[in-house]
């Protein structure tokens, strides 16, 4: 199970025990707080009161193993994710490609996520990013509500898709998204 908190207050002894990975996004087109500031805040809290936050049974090393840094772009500026992260403009295809390359070669993050959050963004960004990544996994999320869209994104180079709204709003449509060719 994965958790992607948008606040360090969402991480607790219970959540660490229940998850396999804790995704920590570094949002390239968000405000400073969501690229660096929240990370500093989270690790400052962990280092200053580790036992108080996560209990004596956890070790810093075991918690560190669950943390997975994710290079992240939010392309739907009207989404809740964008307003939370301070995103005011989508990135161009060249900027998305640059963010993906920085994710892989500069930051050495294992994942890069192109998020359209509630709307289908097509395959152009996935095509652009897939050409520069060799070690980093490419995730796409946004508006996947059919097997056709899922297949299009996966065929364009995404390693995995994230299905959110469809899962909650239309279970039959969600089941269709799992019928992919790959």
From TrEMBL:
A Pfam match is: PcrB
Q: Does the keyword Transferase apply?
A: yes
Give the catalytic activity: sn-glycerol 1-phosphate + (2E,6E,10E)-geranylgeranyl diphosphate = sn-3-O-(geranylgeranyl)glycerol 1-phosphate + diphosphate
Among Gene3D superfamilies, the record links this protein to: FMN-linked oxidoreductases
Task: List the EC numbers from the record.
Answer: 2.5.1.41
The protein's UniProt keywords, in alphabetical order, are: Lipid biosynthesis, Lipid metabolism, Magnesium, Metal-binding, Phospholipid biosynthesis, Phospholipid metabolism, Transferase
Q: Which domain of life is it from?
A: Archaea
Q: Which GO terms describe its biological process?
A: glycerophospholipid biosynthetic process
Name a GO molecular-function annotation: metal ion binding
- NCBIfam families on file: PRK04169.1-3
PANTHER family, A to Z: HEPTAPRENYLGLYCERYL PHOSPHATE SYNTHASE (PTHR40029:SF2), PTHR40029
What is the name of this protein? Answer: phosphoglycerol geranylgeranyltransferase
């Amino acid at each position: 199970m994965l958790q992607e908190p948008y606040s360090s207050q969402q991480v607790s002894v219970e959540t660490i025990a229940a998850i396999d990975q804790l995704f920590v996004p570094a949002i390239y087109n968000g405000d400073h707080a969501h690229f660096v500031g929240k990370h500093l805040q989270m690790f400052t809290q962990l280092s200053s009161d580790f036992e108080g936050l996560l209990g004596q049974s956890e070790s810093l090393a075991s918690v560190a193993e669950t943390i997975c840094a994710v290079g992240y772009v939010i392309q739907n500026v009207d989404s809740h994710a964008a307003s939370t992260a301070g995103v005011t403009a989508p990135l161009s295809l060249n900027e998305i490609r640059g963010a993906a390359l920085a994710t892989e070669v500069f930051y050495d993050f294992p994942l890069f996520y192109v998020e359209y959050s509630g709307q289908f963004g097509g395959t152009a960004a996935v095509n652009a990013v897939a050409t520069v990544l060799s070690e980093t996994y490419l995730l796409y999320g946004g508006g996947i509500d059919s097997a056709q869209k899922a297949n299009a994104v996966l065929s364009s180079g995404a390693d995995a898709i994230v299905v959110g709204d469809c899962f909650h709003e239309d279970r039959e449509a969600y089941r269709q998204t799992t019928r992919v060719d790959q």
